[in-house]
Design brief:
Blueprint: H1 21-27, E1 37-44, E2 50-52, E3 60-62, H2 64-77, E4 81-87, H3 106-118, E5 123-128, E6 141-143, E7 146-148, H4 149-166, E8 170-173, H5 180-190, E9 197-204, H6 211-217, H7 237-249, E10 253-257, H8 263-272, E11 277-281, H9 283-294, H10 300-314, E12 318-321, H11 324-329
The chain binds ligand PBG and zinc ion.
């Protein structure tokens, strides 16, 4: 008997379902849709402008007109959710990050323009934090070397209110001060914005993967680090504590950030909460794929598809990713 005619010794043959592409497609357990993707954008305090970000190839800082055109093109691809980050410019930074609360600041101004152009076709989330607006680059009020919790809450709540007044659908606090979700929820409700949701960066680690973002947003701390407010990467139980607190404070959606080095955390938060869960595929995770692809060391499309499916498989509903537009343009998710 020839070897290939041997009788099967295994009745269970997982390989049968991998025989053809059509069969693999039919039994795939996880799919990433365009509607799962949220594209982050960096908006300048200017009517127009386009600035490359060297450590994030393919991502640019945009003035309002370029941003509107980009959003329109992305909508054609099927991207219906965006996250906005404001770039106030060095001249508007001060110790308390007061430009973050201004009604005519870069984020509220962009939000009004985007909502006027696209209305409810788009889910518009705004990052709420102080670090791009403070001259010291920390996410809260800095006093004698300490980041003060309580004094930061009022500033964050006023920032969220300015975004809500401009028309944001979701405000997304990323500062990691304790009690900020309750403070923001209370301030929004008091001002009659009870329909604006809170997408909480509930589980945010003190990660070196934020490096390229800090180049992009000019938001690196001038001194020290963020380890007294962001989470220690060695901790997982603490993630459940943070998630439970934010849910109790009124968060509408939770987020785990970064994503790829924290898939276990995504899976565990998914199991512990019934709220929608976002995973933030952060700048460093993006840039390392881009760099390896530029060197010819990785197949970019295949890696991006694998990474995005991994986040979804771990339990994330919404994928916040800089790869979004290219993944759809190049049809990377369908291969
Ligand atoms: C601001 C903020 C950061 C990111 C999102 N919001 C940077 C930080 O905490 O230093 C990181 C996003 C990314 O790396 O893509 N608090
Ligand atoms: Zn911050």
């Amino acid at each position: 008997m020839k070897p290939h005619q041997n009788q099967s010794t295994a009745a269970q043959r997982p390989r049968r379902l991998r025989t053809t592409a059509a069969l693999r497609e039919a039994v795939a357990e996880t799919r990433v849709h365009a509607s799962d993707l949220m594209q982050p954008h960096f908006v300048l305090d200017a009517d127009s402008g386009l600035e490359a970000i060297p450590s994030m190839p393919g991502i640019e800082r945009m003035g309002r007109s370029e941003l509107l055109r980009r959003i329109e093109a992305d909508l054609q691809l099927g991207i219906r959710s965006i996250m906005l980050f404001g770039l106030p410019g060095a001249a508007r930074k001060d110790p308390e990050g007061s430009a973050s609360q201004a009604a005519d600041g870069c984020v509220p101004t962009a939000v009004r323009a985007i909502k006027a152009a696209f209305g409810d076709d788009l889910v518009l989330a705004t990052d709420v934090c102080l670090c791009a607006y403070t001259d010291h680059g920390h996410c809260g009020v800095l006093h004698e070397g300490h980041i003060l919790n309580e004094p930061s809450l009022g500033l964050l709540a006023e920032t969220a209110l300015a975004h809500a007044e401009a028309g944001a659908d979701l405000v997304a606090p990323s500062d990691m001060m304790d009690g900020r979700v309750a403070a923001i929820r209370g301030r929004l409700d008091q001002a009659g914005h009870d329909r604006v949701g809170v997408l909480s960066y509930a589980v945010k680690y003190a990660s070196a993967y934020y490096g390229p973002f800090r180049d992009a947003a000019d938001s690196a701390p001038a001194a020290g680090d963020r380890k007294t407010y962001q989470m220690d990467p060695r901790n997982r139980r603490e993630a459940l504590r943070e998630a439970a607190l934010d849910e109790a404070e009124g968060a509408d959606m939770l987020m785990v950030k970064p994503a790829l080095a924290y898939l276990d955390v995504i899976a565990q938060v998914r199991a512990a909460s019934s709220l929608p869960l976002a995973a933030y595929n952060v700048s460093g995770e993006y840039s390392q794929v881009k760099a390896a692809a530029q060197l010819g060391w990785l197949d970019e499309g295949a890696v991006v598809s694998e990474n995005l499916h991994a986040m979804k498989r771990a339990g994330a509903d919404l994928l916040i990713t800089y790869h979004g537009r290219e993944a759809l343009e190049q049809r990377w998710l369908n291969r």
